[in-house]
Amino acid sequence: xxxxxxxxxxxxxxxxxxxxxxxxxxxxxxxxxxxxxxxxxxxxxxxxxxxxxxxxxxxxxxxxxxxxxxxxxxxxxxxxxxxxxxxxxxxxxxxxxxxxxxxxxxxxxxxxxxxxxxxxxxxxxxxxxxxxxxxxxxxxxxxxxxxxxxxxxxxxxxxxxxxxxxxxxxxxxxxxxxxxxxxxxxxxxxxxxxxxxxxxxxxxxxxxxxxxxxxxxxxxxxxxxxxxxxxxxxxxxxxxxxxxxxxxxxxxxxxxxxxxxxxxxxxxxxxxxxxxxxxxxxxxxxxxxxxxxxxxxxxxxxxxxxxxxxxxxxxxxxxxxxxxxx
Length: 326
Ligand code: FAD
Fold this sequence. Notes:
Elements lengths: L4 E4 L2 E2 L2 E2 L1 H14 L4 E6 L7 H6 L4 E5 L9 H15 L3 E5 L2 H14 L2 E6 L1 E5 L2 E8 L4 E5 L6 E5 L16 E5 L28 E5 L6 H14 L2 E4 L1 H5 L20 E5 L5 H4 L7 E6 L6 H4 L2 E4 L2 H19 L1
Parallel strand pairs: 1-4, 1-6, 4-5, 5-12, 6-11, 7-11, 13-14, 13-15, 15-16, 16-17
Antiparallel strand pairs: 2-3, 8-9, 9-10
Helix pairs in contact: 3-4, 5-9
The chain binds flavin-adenine dinucleotide.
The site of flavin-adenine dinucleotide has 27 residues, from α6, α7, β16 and α9.
């Protein structure tokens, strides 16, 4: 069965977010030679056309409207609804991001469609689409299918591999105007708090600190290590509650979910609520002076020691490797 698959493209500071390319990968798995349509909002949509095309989008809707320069629930929901009515897709993929989590349930209810959220894998069984997603704070995986009707799914960042770049066959470009009214919120200012522009939820390396880091200065040590590895800084809620760092860095059940290639937990005990946000990382390294700390149960490599000694040593060693390979 050929399917028409629509994806919502997310951009940040002039760059495509990886999760949008991951959504195209998911779309390719289920489209079965059907059409993949990408919807880009905002005035600078054309700059993303080439990359979206290379990764497999067949038709790109450029949706430009004064009301779409900054995300608002009302503005995006109205615009995306009109795109959906026009495209009439069978499946819609969004990122499992702040935007995707806000829009997908709202539109799924409005349209009466099924919704599977926080998807880490998609596959086909015969003609049916199977969605894999973590449950019980990441302790188990469930495989779900929607029995009838059309489908929304949100894709957890960093899980579905971005496909190889294909030989570019020009995508169709469809400028699309939307009618937006009655926006109930005004965005006055957007203040970003992530470290150095490395997006925590899409970072390949995360160096994360807990209460054991003991203060803001301790986080500077972690930052040096993260910089050498080209990674982002994360934190436990313990560290955020103690005001060692900002809550935007919190990882876990009530924070961000990350799945980097390498997660280095420094002075974090490993409470279940923290594990929920990082246990799907590919390699987990834990540094803790307590050999009984639960974090060692999920770690691939454990270093029992004082992080104030271990972290600078690691930074030095990674620096040497980096210089040797440049
Ligand atoms: P602690 O548990 O105090 O651990 C500090 C660790 O540092 C210890 O293991 C200690 O041995 C080690 N240490 C101390 N000094 C050093 C040193 N010099 N070198 C090496 N190791 C050292 N937590 C989250 O993280 N994310 C969430 O999203 C989250 N959501 C929650 C939701 C709810 C509803 C609840 C009830 C709790 C939630 N929590 C969350 C809190 C969670 O239960 C823990 O309290 C929290 O994760 C503990 O943070 P921590 O590991 O930094 O601190």
